Every structure is written in structure tokens, then in C-alpha cells.
Amino acid sequence: MHLTLTVKLQPNPAQTQSLLVTMERFNAACNAIAETAFREHTASHVRLHRLMYREVRERFGLSAQMAVRAIGKVVEVYKRDKSIQPTFRPHGAIVYDDRLLSWKGVDRVSLLTLTGRIVVPVMMGTYHTQRLCRVRGQADLIYRDGAFYLAVVVDVPEPPPLQPDDWLGVDLGIVNIAADSDGQTYAGGQVNGLRSRHQKLRQRLQQKGTKSAKRLVKKRRRKEHRFATDVNHCIAKQWVTQAQDTRRGIALEDLTGIRDRITVHQAQRRRHHSWAFHQLRTFITYKATLAGVPVVFVNPRNTSRTCPHCGLIDKRNRPNQASFQCIGCGFAGPADTIAARNIASRAAVNRPHAGSLSEIPASSVL
Fold first, then answer.
1. What is the mean pLDDT of the segment spanning 299-314?
2. pLDDT of 132
3. What is the pTM for the complete model shown?
4. Structural domain for 175, as ranges
5. Which CATH number characterizes residue 240's domain?
6. 48, 66, 208, 245: which has the fewest Cβ within 10 Å?
7. Which residue has the higher pLDDT, 274 or 253?
């Protein structure tokens, strides 16, 4: 399977300036190509190459292969929505392929710029180093918060999936981010408290509106995202390890389109819509695939209202958010854990589903 590793570059000041100029010129060329594509109503790589290749090279000074990659970037974006003309930020990503980039060991990379090739040191950990020998395809040069990163695609072998003896059910929620059928809950009050604190601070700074407040908002804008990503990585890793050690598969709710199907109170809208449940699902999927753990998605309907002991489905079985008590047989327990048990039992009649590669975004592996 293909994964995307994000590694940080450490260019010196001269290399930084060279990369910035190249990035700005590349994206200016993309804007010119996008204008032609929109005017001619074409997303054909061949036709745009005939129309713009020579002009891009002469007007923006790009190399032959860099001009080809600029045309390819525009075609990829314009195909998504032909009703509008795409625009590209001055510091948008540059697409590097094997002709524009080469690795010098595992700690340096050679990149083509407008002034020639430069060799830039790379900072990476053991996780990245072990997989860098399997680099496949292109890489994206990203400029973010004053630093350069390379998003590198690697090909990682998949072990054969194990035949599960049982299933580990997982219930996702708002009060508790998640709970499993073993009775373990994850990231409840502490995570929600931190998220509320970030939101209140961001709101105060935005209302203040001073230059220093705006600078602080800009500085902190990725902090909550990094926090959520780290929590999701930790939860996913723990579940996959737990399932692998006990020879179980992982059963998840199929929450596709959940935000369009349900409504919540106004006070809960931010919490309901802000947590990255799809990201958590993606992390679980690719980590499970690498570990050979099967994943299955089940229908979540009535999982929190069904008694796992007698099978009675009734809204009154869940008198409040936290508790479950069957009105038929009296079976009781934590509501989220009961829902996870029902999800695990439904997985027994579902076929295992290994996540598709398209579900893994470029920022999945950090």
C-alpha cells in the first residue's frame, strides 16, 4: 500500500530564498495555465501542453520538466470543477517527480530550482528512515509556517490479513470520543475541556481584533489540529495493537454522511462538527492494514438502543446519554460500551473491509 510521509527540510538562508522564488514562479505559471484552461474550456493535458508549454518556459523560466508538472497540476485541479477558474497561492505546493528530485542517502535530498540543483538536509525520525528506501512516485514540496516539508509517497508491503477469532467493536461519540466493546473509553472530559479552552481563547482574540491578537490567532491556528491529530493517532494505534494481540478484527460504525442526517442542539454544534472522525477512521484503516488486522464497517442504526442480552430495541432503553438499561430484561451498563458491543456482534455477519488507498490523505502519516 502507499503511504505519504511528511519530512522536514533544513535549508540554509540562500537555499530558502531559492526555494521560495522557485515556488512563487511555479505557481504564477500555474495561474497563467489555469487562465488558458478556463478560457478554452479544456482539461486536456495534451492540448494545454501545446498551448502553454513554450510560453511557460520563456515567460516564467521554468525547466522543461517543471513546466510539465505545472500543466499537470492545473489539469488535476481544473478537472474537479470546470465551472470556476482555479487560482494558486504564491506559496502553494510544487510537484516534484524523479526528474526533479533525487535522494542523497536518507539525510539529504537534491531539488531542482530556477538557479540549478541544491542539496538540502532532511530531518526525520526512525519511522521515516525505515520506510524511505521504498520511495515511489512524486513528492510535494510544501511551505508551511516558515518551514519547508516534503510529502513523500512510499510503498509499504502489506502482511496477509489474519482470520479473526472475534471482533473489537468501536463506538464513536461526542461526550466520549470513542469507546470499545472491552469497556475502555477514550479522550472524554479532558479532551473536550482542552478543545473548549482553545475555542474560547480563539473567540476572545478574534473579538479583540488588534494586530497582536491577530498574530497570536495566526500562530495558534494549527495547534488544535495538531492536538486532534495526535489524539487520533494514539487511539488508532492502541486499538490496532489491542486487536492484533488478541487476534480480533476491528468493527466500526459506517458514519458516511452522518452530519447531513442528524441534527443536534445549538450548544453542541461546534463539538459535533469539529472533531475529525473521518481522520480517526482513516488512521485506524491504514494502521490495521499494515498490521494485517481486518476492518469492517457496520450500520450504526439503533446500536445504542438495542439490548445485547435479549435483543429488545427501544428508545427508552437509553434514559440518558451515559447509561443503558433494558426495559425488558433489566440488563444495564454504560451506554457507549453497550453500543460498541452491538457493533462487534453485527461485524460477525459482515465481510471484512480493508480501507481503500484513496482514503489515506497526504497528511495521514506524520
1. 87
2. 74
3. 0.76
4. 166-359
5. 3.30.420
6. 245
7. 253
